[in-house]
Design goal:
Quinone Oxidoreductase, Chain A, domain 1; alpha/beta; 23% helix; seven-stranded mixed beta sheet; binds NADP nicotinamide-adenine-dinucleotide phosphate; Rossmann fold; 16 strands
Length: 309
């Protein structure tokens, strides 16, 4: 099969190569890939026990080609989207991917394309876990999202609005109308040193909660949270709590599978919009990765392997 691979541990280069389709074990699924979501971590999230050449990529959508004998909930022919992070036999930038049945795998609603489905697993999983940490924030509360025009932030605005929260977010000025179109009341420019004052003018006393998506945004986000409010850092910034603000990272011990299934259905039903800045041919995958690595993608970039994705 054709796959974008790393040929050995410790090298940075990713190249298109012909490699064998990996055989599955009894607890694994072989997926024929139709579309791949591109993320900033794709080229370096590799497991310690990776077998080389290793196809990179941590999410995608396709059709179940074969299931191991111990796999019950999935059947050949099922349309699925999934997170394939840290799979020893390789990731999703390939014509076929092997994934453990225990991974985060969700069915694709009949009306949803593989392209849109492939854009959701990582961003959806991440924002749903971040929101689960803010579960106690009531309807009518205010939230600030740092990095609101990217893959996670665009979902975050819409899901926060669906909870009845009032939303503000940061992005470059060219994306402000777009943030408002998704439901943000206030859009601020993170390049402008005055942005925290603009958030505090919008919500005197500070917002009830903040979600810091991009790296190095947690301290600034915390500064616009009211005393005793909530902060979730998606980027993994280390930030000390102050003024009674409860600051934490994204929880890993919550199961958001059912929420991700519901999110797929909401997208299928038109209640949630998935922004795909561009769908690339599979052969142009490295261009897509370069764009995402600029941290200035609007929503997602997706690779299409053709076949009516
Ligand atoms: N904890 C987890 O499980 C987990 C999982 C996945 C990802 N992540 C983290 O999430 C981040 C990626 O999120 P994503 O996929 O949404 O990113 P993304 O799609 O690359 O986000 C790009 C957006 O971020 C905005 N942006 C760039 N720099 C910014 C800054 N300094 N302040 C505010 N906004 C800024 C850009 O806005 P403009 O273009 O308008 O300037 C662009 O719209 C990474 O840091 C990654 O480590 C964490």
């Amino acid at each position: 099969m054709r796959a974008f691979v790393k040929q050995a541990a410790g090298i940075d280069t990713v190249e298109l190569a012909d490699v064998p389709v990996p055989p599955i074990d009894e607890d694994e699924i072989l997926v024929r890939m139709y579309a791949v979501g591109v993320g900033i971590h794709d080229s370096y999230f590799l497991p310690g026990d990776a077998s080389y050449p290793y196809p990179i990529g941590i999410e995608g959508a396709g059709v179940v080609e074969e299931v191991g004998i111990d796999v019950s909930p999935h059947r050949t022919g099922d349309r699925i989207a999934f997170v394939s992070s840290m799979q020893p036999k390789g990731g999703t930038w390939a014509e076929y991917a092997v994934v453990k049945a225990s991974a985060l795998i969700v069915p694709i609603p009949d009306g949803l394309s593989f392209t849109v489905a492939a854009a959701l697993p990582v961003a959806g999983n991440t924002i749903l876990r971040a929101l689960s940490a803010l579960g106690e924030v009531p309807s009518g509360a205010s939230v600030f999202i740092a990095g609101a025009s990217g893959a996670i932030g665009t979902l975050g605005i819409q899901l926060a609005r669906a909870r009845g929260w009032r939303v503000s977010g940061s992005a470059s000025p060219g994306n402000h109308d777009y943030l408002r179109s998704l439901g943000a009341e206030l859009a601020v420019d993170y390049h402008d040193p005055d942005w925290p004052a603009q958030v505090r003018a919008w919500m005197p006393g500070g917002v009830d909660a903040a979600i810091a998506v991009q790296p190095d945004t947690s301290a600034g986000s915390l500064a616009v949270v009211r005393d005793g409010g909530e902060l979730v850092s998606i980027s993994g910034d280390q930030v000390a709590s102050e003024r009674g603000v409860h600051a934490r990272g994204v929880p890993y011990d919550v199961d958001v599978r059912d929420d991700l299934v519901r999110l797929m259905q909401q997208v299928d039903g038109g209640e949630v919009h998935v922004e795909i800045e561009r769908t690339h041919r599979f052969d142009d995958a490295l261009d897509a990765l370069a764009k995402v690595q600029t941290r200035h993608a609007r929503g997602k970039h997706v690779l299409s392997l053709g076949k009516g994705a």
